[in-house]
Amino acid sequence: MFCIQVTDVGKLAGESRISGPYADRFNQLRGIFVDKTTSPLYIADLLNRRIQNWPKNALEGVTGASSNGGKLGSNNASLDRPYGLRVDKETKIVYVVNLMNNRIQRWKHDETDGDTIVGGTGEVNENNQFHHPTDLAFDSNGNLYVSDVWNHCVQFFALIDNRSCQASSTTTVKTST
Predict the structure, then answer these.
(1) What is the DSSP-derived secondary structure letter of residue 132?
(2) What's the Cα-to-Cα distance from 98 to each of 93, 114, 169, rounded to whole Å?
(3) Which residues contact 98 (CB under 8 A, 6 or more apart)?
(4) Which has the closest alpha carbon to 80: 93, 66, 94, 95?
(5) What are phi and psi of 160, to 5 degrees?
(6) CB–CB of 24/43 below 8 Å?
(7) Where are the NHL-type repeats located (predicted)?
């Protein structure tokens, strides 16, 4: 049996029970990442189509990765339902699962456009394509793993200098159905 002692409880980000597009509000949160070195929260705000950076003790968030002010699109400045995210603690590059655009994007610090590192073009049944990706993870070697919901698999990508490899270098791990 485990005993967990809670020392403090409170709301850190967002206006309780009120959704909206404003800097202090969210519209369906999906992913969250805590930077353990500087303490901001990075939050995937699904229906506002943005990633909010919420500094410690702030009253509102700062939009990092965005979708042209919340508009739908598929260009490099667009997010269509961001889901999972990770932040590289050294470079502060934000990696985003772009659910409806079926791709993984990265946003370099202080840049307005992201770039696609894998997915986003072609047929959804190809090894380097997704059909509703929801989360991502990196291992200690920098390899990328993506949960691919409607392809029913986890996809693996060996990244070289954060550039995606060719489809022939990917491995697909099928989940049982």
Answers:
(1) S
(2) 15, 11, 22
(3) 79, 80, 81, 82, 83, 104, 105, 120, 133
(4) 66
(5) -120, 115
(6) no
(7) 126-160
- Token pair, residue 20, equals 């909206």
The single residue listed with the structure tokens 């950076």 is: 53
- Catalogue all structural domains in the chain, each as residue range(s) with its CATH number: 29-174 (2.120.10.30)
The pTM of the full predicted model, rounded to 2 decimals, is 0.80
Determine what percent of the chain is predicted with pLDDT higher than 70. 75
Distance CA 127, CA 96 (A): 19
How far is residue 163's CA from residue 142's CA, in Å, rounded to a whole number? 11
CA separation for the pair 76, 96 (Å, rounded) = 12
Residue type, 133: P
Q: How far apart are CA 102 and CA 81, in angstroms?
A: 10
Measure the CA–CA gap between 37 and 96, rounded to whole angstroms.
Answer: 20
164 neighbors 158 (Cβ within 8 angstroms)? no
The pLDDT tens digits of the residues spanning 95-132 come to: 999 999 999 999 888 788 888 999 987 566 677 789 99
